Amino acid sequence: MLSMGFGAAALGLGACAETVVDPSGDGAGAEQAAAGGGGTAAPGAGGGGHGGDGGAELPVGQCSPPVEARPFDRGLLPLYLNSIAFDRSGNLGMTGIAQTRIDLGGGELQPRGGMDVVVAKFDAAGNHVFSKLFGNGSDQRGDSIAFDSGCNMILGGSFAGTMDLGGSSLTGGRSLFVAKLDGAGNHVWSKRLGGASALDPLFLSVAVDPTTDDVVLAGHFKGTIDFGGASLTNTTDGRRPAFVAKLNAAGQHLWSKQFVGTVNINAIGIDSSGDVIITGEHGGSVDFGAGPLGPDDRLAHGLFLVRLDASGNHRSSKRWEASNTGTNIKGMAIDASGAALIAGSTECGIDLGGGPLEPVECRRSAYVAKFDAEGAHQLSRLLGSSKLSGAESIGVDPSGSAFIAGMFGGTMDLDGELLTADAEDGAGFVAQLTEDGSVSRSKMVVGQLDQLHRLAVDPEGHVAVLGRTWESVELESGPQLGRGDFVTKFDIAAP
Predict the structure, then answer these.
(1) Cα dist. 3→74, 472, 488 in Å?
(2) What are phi and psi of 361, to 5 degrees?
(3) Which of 160, 141, 171, 135 is nearest to 27 (CA)?
(4) pLDDT tens digits, residue range 87-106?
């Protein structure tokens, strides 16, 4: 087991992105290097464009030279990280917010004031590939990342004023943005979307179609938002409509639509047929395309799972009444069959189609559920503990196994394997589930944790989790003292 520190040497990786004509509107310059507060991208080696002497061919299905996958962690970072993702070669990307000086392995990065977007990538062994800051002295935020089939990074977030991601500057008040960076962190295209408010920071989720490399965006918005087609405008009184939009691989608008109501889209996914799946929570009534779901009462809390086809047309939608806001959906993953797996927490119970899930004494408990590509219920179960538990994120590996990350207190019985947390602080957990929903393996993340809120699974089934501690945490490299965010990658099957 190997742990890597911030001083690890960068592996020489070349850009694996195609040359893309920048979309019309707020975008520019696939040939320009990304600007920002320092940081270096590892250069390509050799004339073939992918690295290696004389452009040696890469293994089939890879977009960077193969590196032996190893466990590693990033220690404690003075950052607020929001998203992690693996590309098809096992490189790990991350994004979030930086407010203080940081060195992620490629040299010191100095924010320009306020909050800056941070993006970074590490290879399968934990070596630094690139790290960058984007900022202007105001407040910027990196919300979500995903990778396309060429290992290009799709980045979504928000900014205020003017932001330069390496192409033409994006300008215009508080706004959401989306950008594509190549495998070395260089700018390919970027777009200002609008739709944000200084009084109500909004989160932008991104996903990539595994077949076409189309980019799907989801979230909710204020005012007007423009993806390149007809603008969407929030005309509701105090409600927060949600949007889903699709851009092609060059960032050009394909379709966009809004769902009127008070809607929070917490997760988005795309299956191999191009279906777009969204899930989250809403208050009152909302129409996703098949008629209103839920009572016309803003205080009525419900959960939803909606499937649109590749053109944005409604295919199926489900709503479940939730007794209180302690019942939620936090994460979703799509497996190779197109089935949607969701994970979250419930307090006083919910029936997702397989019978009531009822925690003891309304004690908050983690749950997981699975629905096939037609929306039919396949399984649902609790992952409770003697105190409280909650699932925050879920992913799937190529074999169909699901991995769930979250927090718990007391003792957690995972199908006969007992996890016991510290009496006061609780602990994080990662559980691997087979296709029938039974727990096959589990792992604890021990420390004074605030949250364990993001999980990603690489093509070989290795797991990375993102968390936050206020005092200490046990990572692959040993105990880490202090306050900050951490990312750790491991093989859950290893002893």
Answers:
(1) 9, 17, 9
(2) 55, 35
(3) 171
(4) 999 999 999 999 999 999 99
